[in-house]
Amino acid sequence: MSAKTEAKNRIEQQIRVLVVDDEPDIRELLDLTLARMGLATDCAGTVAEAKRLLSDNRYRLCLTDMRLPDGEGLDLVRHIGECCQDTPVAVITAYGSMENAVSALKAGAFDYLAKPVSLDQLRILVKSAIDLPQHGDSDAPSPTQALLGNSSAMCQTRALVARVARSQAPVYISGESGSGKELAASLIHRLGARRAAPFIPINCGAIPENLMESEFFGYRKGAFTGAESERAGFFQAANGGTLFLDEVADLPLTMQVKLLRAIQEKRVRKVGATGEDAVDVRIICATHQNLKTLVEQGRFRQDLFYRLNVIELRMPSLRECREDVPLLTHYFLERLANTAGMPVPLLTPAALAALDKYPFPGNVRELENVLERALALLAGDSIDVADLHLASTVPDEASPGGAQPHDQLPLQEHLDQVEKQVILDALQKTRFNRTAAAKLLGVTFRSLRYRMQRLGLNE
Asked: How many CA atoms lie within 13 Å of 173's alpha carbon, on the beta-carbon side?
């Protein structure tokens, strides 16, 4: 093979990037920077020229300015989303114009850069885009393996998770407790360009308010009493990866301001430090509360809400996916039995019918807990209705007029059951941090301790 042919093959095998900007100086700067990274570059000065190049070539990334002579960068973002779905596109926007950046992310952009362009941030962005899994990658997880179910609601959720994973945009996951919000966040991370970097899940409701800043951003030695050595915060720990903020609605307003600045500037300041550290973190947040309502009530900052709610992913409740109950049941039973080193028990038709009728206020997490408890207490080799110990406070959908089994209970006993379940839910959300659970419930720590003792929850 001749040297000329070898050189041609090397050029063809190079990863190609499309740069779209009407300023020759910017195009040259980006071209030189990408060339030093070993990437081939095609440049265009207009939307029309960019579309022609996209029709003739395959690119691993497109970098486009927001303002072009014959159109907007958003036009190109939408065009690429329709015609070249495998090509991530990043927009270059004027400094401080976060509205444009958010609009681009909502339109499907992979990420954004602010002018003047930081070459360090450009290199990080380019590497992330190139690291996106390609179709056919054997090491990329399948959404079906993590989010089980054949219902229409779950199929739509998996499809959105796969699309969201190919972006760097912030994601807001809404849904009831136990519906799998953290599982979805983890899957978005594992399907994306950051899959080799850390995924750091944080329960915002479990952190005392006076420790939040130091936990999120870290601190310098001597910054406060007890700070005997320097420590990194959650942002530094997640650098290059994903930070999952569960129950983000529990953040106090003072912390919301600091979080907003960290997201916008991509920089954080440790407690006691004079300088800032650059961080490259994707934010995914979740809560079972309605953030829009909290914004209207003044309990959540509107600017932070719009910054976090670039892409919303709603996790369906198990009641919306009733046809998935048998599949999930058999999956959990098999996994739990294998972990316990015992044979997989049979589930009687009556037990399966009872699960199918049960409304599961705790969603998939409650289904798993019900089966784990049944397996732990199982005396025989099959699980029947009685072994499930389904809550007696659930309405019997088969009875006329919606009669409820707890109608026969004395009032105080029924109220105790409800109160006990509410406290258990709060403890589970806060990973059994009683101080955080009391705050979540709106009671004092002493009151919560008394209620737990009265209901026998301290055992």
From this structure: 29
Domain spanning 318-390: which CATH class is it, in words?
Answer: mainly alpha
Q: At which residue do the structure tokens 């090509």 appear? A: 87
**Separation of alpha carbons 433 and 207, rounded Å:** 9
Identify which of 123, 166, 140, 98 has the alpha carbon closest to the alpha carbon of residue 37. 123
Token pair 């681009």: residue = 104
- Please name the residue that has the structure tokens 């007029």: 401
Q: What token pair was written down for 316? A: 């369906």
Instruction: Summarize pLDDT for 344-384 with one digit per residue, the tens.
Output: 999 999 999 999 999 998 899 999 999 998 988 888 889 99
Joined together, the tokens standing for residue 184 give 């979805």
Residue corresponding to tokens 């907007």: 72
User: For position 9, what pLDDT does the model report?
Assistant: 46
pLDDT at 404: 44
14-130 maps to CATH 3.40.50.2300: yes
Architecture of the domain whose range is 411-454: Orthogonal Bundle (1.10)
199-203 and 242-246: which strand pairing? parallel
Same fold, 14-130 and 143-314: yes
Quickly name the fold that domain 143-314 has.
Answer: Rossmann fold (3.40.50)
Both tokens of 63, joined, read 């970098």
Q: Kindly tell me the sign of the dihedral angle through the C-alpha atoms of 220, 222, 223, 229.
A: positive
Q: Which of 121, 92, 122, 123 is nearest to 109 (CA)?
A: 92
Q: Which two tokens stand for residue 108?
A: 């499907």
Residue type present at position 18: L
